[in-house]
Amino acid sequence: TNSRLGSNQSPSVGGHCPQTEDTAGAHFRRLLEEMGMRLPQTWSQCVPDGSNAEHTWSSDLAGKHRLDYVAVPQSWKEGTQVWVNY
Fold first, then answer.
1. Average pLDDT over residues 21-40
2. Closest CA to 44 of 74, 15, 9, 75
3. Among 77, 83, 68, 80, which Cα is nearest to 28's?
4. Distance between CA 41 and CA 54 in Å, rounded?
5. CB 55, CB 69: distance < 8 Å
6. For the whole model, what pTM was predicted?
7. pLDDT tens column, 32-68
């Protein structure tokens, strides 16, 4: 989804590089919670040190934003790592 998340943390959304949650983000967070999913890129322990995981989209006019996510089951909490290659 193209949503901003992080300012409202939950078992599904961590506080790594938070953005101010927008309306789409609030709906997405609630859906993740209902489905028992989490977003590894929002948890600092899942993101490699020094990576650029704080954004997934950039534009010369609009700047850099984290708008795209991969959700995994909350049971994958241990050992999940974000792969950053761009």
1. 95
2. 15
3. 68
4. 8
5. no
6. 0.82
7. 999 999 998 888 888 877 665 677 777 788 777 777 7
- Find out whether 40 and 18 touch, Cβ atoms under 8 Å: no
Q: What is the DSSP string of 1-40?
A: -----BSS--SS---SS-B---HHHHHHHHHHHHHTEE-G
In the chain the first and final C-alpha atoms are separated, in Å, by 19
Hey, how many other C-beta atoms are within 10 angstroms of the C-beta on 45? 11
Q: What torsion do the CA atoms of 8, 84, 82, 55 make, to the nearest 10 degrees?
A: 0
